[in-house]
Write the structure tokens for this entry.
Amino acid sequence: MITKPKGTTDITGNESILWEYVNSVVATMMNNYNYEFIRTPIFEASELYHRSVGETSDIVQKETYDFKDKGERNLTLRPEGTAGVVRSYLENKLYAEPDAKKYYYNGTMYRYERPQTGRMREFTQFGVEVLGSNDPIVDAEVISLQYKILEALHISNLQVNINTLGDQESRNNYRDALVKYLEPHLDCLCEDCRERFKTNPLRILDCKVDADSEILKNAPKTIDYLNEESKKRFETVLKYLDLLEIDYEVNPKIVRGLDYYDHTVFEIVSLDNCETKASVLGGGGRYNKLIKELDGPDSYGIGWACGMDRIINLLKEIDLYKDVKKQVECYVMYVSEEEKLHALEIVQDLRLNGIVTECDNLGKGLKGQFKQADRLNAKLLIILNSEDLSMGLVNVKDNATKEEEKVDISEVVDYVLGLL
Ligand code: AMP
């Protein structure tokens, strides 16, 4: 038997109901915050990720799915959403528009990781990117949007861990201080970190292996190396978050793994479930250098991504969602071929009037149809028989109270709508 590739998953049954529910909450919230849906390709030129996510990142060094197509083009399955959105923004010259662009996406990403709980090779992220504004109001808006989506999903005990890398000058000052501090301790760090020391020392703070070492715990903090302007900017972001009643903690260890971040960086966790790195539900930050690095104008960007698979794993543990089941509103029952023709019409009529409706498609007898209706939690049964039909009537039965009523066939939709 052919099985699914390692690190991928099938979403079926109650999980897919949860999935659709989360998608609908996400879409509604994004719409309320006036974010526009953007769909970019699942594969892009490999160069895009090398130049944006960064040559020295784990993602690009170890985790991308790279391939050549039949035209010998180097392509990569997208490992994250930001690069594609920024590429589209530049390619379509949307920076020429008078307003900042506010995008959201929701799609699969691909990273060749060691699969474990909350870490897949194919996974889904929804996220936002705001391009063209450097106002701290946007930092606060995007953070609160992620927080409020998770809150709307009833995920409890949320906390934003927030930090700032400051502008380029502050980041450089910090980098120098970090290098000076780490140099005498290099022997105690993992092999990857010794390599990172040469290429991108900030990334050492993000290391999954050395995360708990005393050396990293005592490392210099970005916040102590900010210039006045960067410091003021960060204070403004925090002030706005206070105003929006977002629960945050300034955490100097958050630097985020990708090359393109500056200023605000953050992650959101649920404190009920925060023992592992896989408990981070989402994160992001500002990337004011990225647009220029991708040959665009000197502009601004900020964004975040949230892991759908991790959210679904969490929701499955919440009592509220334990009993989610597909609920059919009407189940139409028939036996003879003549009844079947009426059923076909009635089912379509109900469905097109927004009523979730099902009928038998396996030639079951009435007993089997009653059982299927129960499995589908049908609220109402519409039972057809030739005698009623000859008088233009159908039998509508409440599947819980067992009360029934004969209804004129032309009025069945209105009658059902009245009951639901
Ligand atoms: P990142 O793009 O690495 O900042 O990740 C943002 C969010 O996406 C994380 O907080 C996770 O919720 C989710 N995520 C990242 N990588 C994976 C993965 N391999 N499998 C499942 N979810 C992931």
User: Anything to note?
Assistant: The chain has 16 helices and 16 strands.
